[in-house]
Inverse folding.
């Protein structure tokens, strides 16, 4: 018996030059405002404040369709978008939607007056993680199915051959890829290259 | 959508133990049934609570409580929890004040697979919430503590698994909590604040030490805290399980069911008096049918020993820097076994990220066997670390940002979820705890390491943060000034965790939430300045008196007007105007008596039987259909006082109590008797179909009889 791959949980992190000790209070104010926007398609629920954790997910804006945060959970702080449900279409279309939504929220975050002035997004340094060990287990078969879709989206973003794609092969980890491109295009430019 | 041969879907969970797989399949079926309007929401609410699924304050998301008996974890379980937190929640596992683990912001549609993935590593969420026996707690250093009478681990564990799913634990008016402690003096077990508190004791038995427990009954916190009353100075270990079963039966039979505020066992004990309650329990104990599980574990329990991974060794006293030495002093405890230490991983607010939990699991695999426990102070204890390996273990923790000092100190603040997620929360208890945590790093650093004071915070009067047993306790409230409402905290002083929660504090004043950290500073200053000798804070508060303390705090207790300082009208770490918004909490669950649950289960079984019938699986359909008949009959027999644990013959008793008396329509009852005679195999299409129809009618009639009686009377 086979099954269809229903890709819904995908995380995209845009790395930044922020220190791991980045103060998170500005995000408390920003997300405190965002969460009240009932019309946002993300269907925000509330925020979760984990600023007290030395290495935590920061202040997470929780939505029914996605979560969004300034993440300090790994050595590389960044703006983290995690889709949870609502993706439709083929794998490439779904992945493109994740990139598009992520760039849109990141752009909005950068425009907030409280966003820390010294922090810059590294739009050529991304981490893509398939956040569902049941649906997308980290194995060769699933990776082989997903990789063409990942490549198709990245080709549009950065151009064929203009980026490096490194799979995370560590056992027990979620299936994921690190993406590095020398290009430092703005979020608007990158979004404009995506279909839809 | 891509079509892939990536994973098997028909039998993905076939490796689970059959009874667990079935239980979780039933959970998913019931979830779908309520979503389709086929099950009353009230019944599903209590049903999902009994699987640990608790509605959050925010619409459409759930908190998943995961039962960790005695707080015992192995590394596979830690990895599984970390996976689930990052995939289904917000990437954080939260350790509770009763050694459970909670995930927040979970979509209810994810809960069936979440539970199945927990079951793969031997964890259940069953009875984590709801009106049932909750997680059994125990001292996290049982077995390695030099002060304990004996290791209570195997006894507490036997209690936890004996009562899990036990039919006598399914019909309470409220929750039921049990804790074990290895000694009388320390705070680790908090036995005296539980419905059943058991403290290890030895008795001389013909020259040999006989293991048993000093047992307290009827304790509990909540808005009206009660200290447990002594039941017996010594209950032999072999009598603990039947004693608990007898207590559960008495509580289920006589405990309040309607007034939720007075439904805990503490009120029943107070109402009857300990003497009468004891008499009833002992009478019930005499009636219990023997159960081999009561004593089957005892010989293994006596022999129970944990094993280290590495040989014991000693620490080089000159081998590391001052930060390490400080961490050793504060976060480690020498075990009674020479050469080993128990290490406390201090987790501010009880939170650990998935990356950290994975990292900690990997670290534990290097240094210890599966000897990890969560604590009631919301930390993690790793036992059996060789002393000589402490520097390497410390380095590993530092890499994970888990080497912070503070466990057991003033900085080790306990807090319930409060308005972050709880429907009952009034103020942000976690916000205050986070603010204190920040201050202990910056501004209040000089008092952070005090080991003579404890702070505990609840977001409302319900005491989930255990504010009554803290030296300095806070619980959330509100105060109106003009048109504006401000968050405030009641300050309770004089509680004690020592001596198994031996004293409960009393309120002395109300302080604006913004001023709570200043209150902590003021109180510690006065205590430092005016204590005499080794006077405890509890004794100090008693000596000083409330009037004097209130005078000292007066200036901090004044709430300015909104116009004077609007910041006082925001809660801690919530930079927006405060407004009070509470809902109906789910702590008390719904009183759904056992008959109602069983009738719902009968409905579910006949529904599943119909699906089997449609697929041509007639034997399975007939079998499930008969199971539904039995379930419905048992539901009615429960109304007559018969308990499943009495192991009666359902058909026989149903004939005697309902058919012979004419209380159930004879034609439907006769169908049941005929089904019992003809069995479930080889009935074929037509007869199976008739069985299904007869079962439906039988259940309908059972519902009618049940409705007529009005259910079980409290």
């Amino acid at each position: 018996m086979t099954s269809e791959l229903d890709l819904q949980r995908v995380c995209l992190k845009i790395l930044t030059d922020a220190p791991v000790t980045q103060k998170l209070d500005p995000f408390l104010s920003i997300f405190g405002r965002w969460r009240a926007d009932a019309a946002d398609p993300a269907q925000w629920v509330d925020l979760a404040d984990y600023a007290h954790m030395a290495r935590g997910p920061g202040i997470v804006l929780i939505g029914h369709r996605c979560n969004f945060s300034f993440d300090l959970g790994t050595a590389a702080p960044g703006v983290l978008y995690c889709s949870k449900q609502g993706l439709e279409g083929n794998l490439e279309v779904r992945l493109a939607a994740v990139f598009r939504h992520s760039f849109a929220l990141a752009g909005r975050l950068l425009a907030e007056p409280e966003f820390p002035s010294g922090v810059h997004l590294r739009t050529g340094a991304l981490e893509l993680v398939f956040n569902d060990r049941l649906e997308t287990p980290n194995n060769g078969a699933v990776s082989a199915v997903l990789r063409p879709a990942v490549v198709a989206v990245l080709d549009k973003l950065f151009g064929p051959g203009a980026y490096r794609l490194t799979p995370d092969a560590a056992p027990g980890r979620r299936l994921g890829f690190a993406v590095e491109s020398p290009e430092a295009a703005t979020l608007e430019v990158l979004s404009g290259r995506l279909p839809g | 959508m891509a079509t892939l041969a990536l994973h098997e879907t028909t039998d993905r969970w076939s490796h689970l133990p059959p009874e667990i797989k079935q239980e979780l399949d039933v959970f998913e079926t019931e979830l779908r049934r309520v979503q389709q309007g086929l099950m009353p929401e009230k019944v599903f609410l209590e049903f999902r609570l009994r699987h640990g699924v608790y509605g959050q304050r925010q619409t459409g998301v759930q908190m998943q409580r995961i039962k960790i008996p005695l707080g015992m974890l192995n590394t596979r379980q830690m990895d599984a929890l970390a996976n689930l937190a990052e995939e289904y929640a917000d990437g954080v596992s939260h350790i509770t004040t009763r050694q459970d683990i909670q995930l927040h912001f979970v979509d209810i549609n994810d809960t069936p697979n979440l539970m199945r993935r927990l079951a793969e590593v031997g964890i259940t969420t069953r009875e984590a919430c709801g009106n049932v026996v909750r997680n059994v707690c125990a001292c996290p250093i049982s077995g390695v503590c030099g002060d304990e009478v004996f290791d209570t681990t195997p006894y507490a564990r036997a209690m936890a698994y004996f009562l899990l799913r036990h039919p006598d634990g399914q019909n309470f008016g409220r929750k039921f909590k049990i804790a074990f402690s290895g000694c009388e003096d320390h705070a680790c077990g908090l036995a005296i604040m539980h419905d059943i508190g058991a403290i290890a004791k030895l008795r001389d038995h013909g020259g040999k030490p006989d293991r048993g427990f000093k047992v307290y009954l009827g304790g509990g916190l909540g808005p009206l805290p009660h200290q447990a009353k002594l039941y017996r100075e010594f209950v032999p270990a072999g009598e603990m399980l039947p004693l608990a079963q007898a207590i559960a039966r008495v509580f289920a039979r006589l405990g309040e069911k309607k007034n939720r505020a007075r439904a805990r066992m503490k009120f029943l004990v107070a109402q009857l008096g300990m003497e009468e309650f004891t008499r009833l329990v002992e009478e019930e104990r005499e009636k219990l049918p023997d159960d081999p599980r009561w004593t089957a574990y005892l010989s293994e329990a006596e022999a129970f020993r944990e094993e280290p991974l590495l040989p014991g060794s000693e620490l080089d006293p000159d081998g590391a820097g001052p930060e390490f030495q400080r961490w050793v002093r504060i976060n480690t405890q020498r075990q009674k076994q020479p050469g080993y230490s128990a290490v406390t991983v201090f987790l501010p607010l009880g939170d650990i990220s998935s990356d950290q939990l994975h990292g900690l699991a990997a670290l534990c695999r290097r240094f210890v066997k599966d000897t990890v426990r969560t604590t009631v102070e919301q930390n993690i204890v790793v036992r059996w670390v060789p002393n000589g390996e402490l520097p390497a273990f410390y380095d590993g923790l530092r890499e994970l940002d888990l080497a912070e000092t503070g466990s057991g100190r003033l900085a080790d603040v306990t807090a319930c979820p409060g308005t972050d997620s709880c429907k009952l929360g009034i103020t942000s208890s976690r916000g205050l705890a986070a603010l204190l945590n920040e201050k202990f790093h910056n501004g209040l650093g000089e008092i952070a390491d005090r080991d003579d004071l404890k702070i505990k915070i609840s977001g409302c009067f319900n005491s989930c943060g255990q504010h009554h047993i803290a030296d300095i306790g806070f619980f959330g409230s509100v105060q109106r000034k003009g048109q504006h409402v401000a968050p405030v905290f009641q300050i309770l002083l004089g509680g004690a965790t020592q001596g198994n929660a031996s004293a409960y504090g009393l309120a002395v004043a109300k302080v604006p939430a913004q001023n709570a950290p200043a209150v902590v500073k003021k109180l510690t200053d006065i205590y430092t300045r005016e204590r005499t000798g080794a006077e405890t804070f509890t004794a100090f508060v008693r000596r000083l008196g409330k009037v004097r303390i209130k005078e000292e705090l007066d200036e901090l207790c004044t709430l300015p007007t909104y116009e004077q300082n609007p910041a006082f009208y925001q809660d801690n770490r919530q930079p927006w105007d405060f407004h009070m918004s509470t809902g109906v909490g789910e702590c008390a669950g719904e009183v759904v008596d056992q008959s109602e649950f069983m009738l719902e289960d009968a409905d579910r079984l006949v529904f599943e039987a119909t699906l089997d019938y449609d697929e041509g699986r007639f034997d399975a359909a007939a079998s499930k259909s008969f199971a539904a008949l039995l379930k419905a009959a048992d539901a009615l027999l429960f109304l007559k006082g018969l308990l499943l644990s009495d192991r009666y013959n359902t058909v026989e008793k149903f004939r005697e109590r309902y058919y012979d008396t004419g209380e159930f329509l004879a034609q439907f009852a006769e169908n049941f008797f005929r089904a019992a005679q003809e069995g479930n195999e080889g009935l074929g299409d037509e007869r199976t179909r008739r069985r299904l129809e007869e079962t439906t009618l039988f259940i309908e009639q059972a519902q009618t009889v049940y409705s007529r009686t009005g259910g079980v009377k409290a």
Notes: The radius of gyration of chain B is 27 Å. Confidence is low (pLDDT under 50) at residues 1-9 of chain B.
